[in-house]
Amino acid sequence: MQTIEKALHQPMPFTTGGQTITDRLTAAKHSLAGSQLGKTICKATTEEVMAPKKKHLDYLLHCTQEPNVSIPSMANLLIERTQNPNWTVVYKALITIHNIMCYGNEVIS
């Protein structure tokens, strides 16, 4: 009997605590750069097949109200995530964009 891994013709990502190593490295990169916004976007758009966590969406909505947060930077980070080859990352990025446009600062929508 074929395993799911062979059926999909791709290796299953190694996960720790629900996040893949790639997700953790990307979040760590933003953390080292001092970008809480980038780290939160990476955590909201992980490869994990489940909805983005509410705490990450709430933080991003809060960021839309802050005058010192660059909305174009937020948009660029989210657009970068839509270019990811993993469908779950793209889907979660689109969900996050939708959430921000519906519930974020009216300047965005």
Automatic annotation (TrEMBL):
One GO term in the molecular function aspect is: SNARE binding
- The source's domain of life comes to Eukaryota
Task: Tell me the ranges covered by the ENTH domain, including all copies.
Answer: 29-109
Q: Which N-terminal residues, if any, form the signal peptide? A: none
Gene Ontology CC annotation, any one: synaptic vesicle
**InterPro entries named among the record's database cross-references:** ANTH_dom, AP180-like, ENTH, ENTH_VHS
Q: Which GO terms describe its biological process?
A: clathrin coat assembly; clathrin-dependent endocytosis; synaptic vesicle budding from presynaptic endocytic zone membrane
Know the name of this protein?
ENTH domain-containing protein
Phylogenetic lineage? Eukaryota, Metazoa, Ecdysozoa, Nematoda, Chromadorea
